[in-house]
Predict the structure.
Amino acid sequence: MKKNLKFILLLIKYKLSHMMMFRLSFFGVFFADGTVFLVQLLAFEAIYSRVDSIGGWSRGQMIIFVGTFSIINALNMLIYFFGIVDIPGKIKRGDLDQYLTKPFSPLLRLTFESVNPGSLPLVAASVLIVCYGVSVTGTVVSVSLGLAYAALVLLMTLLWYDMELILRTIPFLVISVNGIMQLEELLIELNFKIPGVLYKGMSKAIFYFILPYGIMSTVPTQLLSGALTLPGLAQALGVVVVFTVFALCFWRFGLRHYQSASS
């Protein structure tokens, strides 16, 4: 563990020094993604100017929902997205060979080699959105509740990582995954606009247990607004555990079927 931690810190240091050579693009993610979430927030504000609630959720809860999704997205961009997004390309080109021949875990290196500190301002801005939502709901957030919310957000970030890893492991077994990547974008966009509490029946089963994008922002929002039940929390934690175990096992399975394109 100590050896892996030193390796991760070295990757982060290298990436940070490289990014500072291009200062103009350092905050590119903040402006791009920040604009998207601001537009979504304004859209919900316009809707709530006409209605009191959506699916039983108040305006404050919806603001927390947008802020929470923004935090998870920002952590995704900050930590691992730019490292694993090109896994399909590395498999196709045979570039994965250089990761497999090194003495460190290839998945560990892929995950942390392209951290993006430029997403830190987006994390801070997203936290402010959540705080604004909390003030609108009038919820009193204790230290323990705040820590529980932060822990749940980190777990949902891990779940997002699991989904990205699973989808990008499929190229070990098939030739093209362009359709799968497009589907991922559509699912994320859909679940960013629709809180999980609005799903019923089959759609809830799909977006809670099969493609669990529906719980990523919904469950932390429910916790912070006092609407999360103990069975609901246990259910969400179970989903994270199952998908994490499956993602790691599926990655190992994919590596065993890897055939270098450069050989």
User: Anything to note?
Assistant: The radius of gyration is 19 Å. The longest helix spans residues 143-169. The chain has one domain: 30-256. The chain has a mean pLDDT of 84.
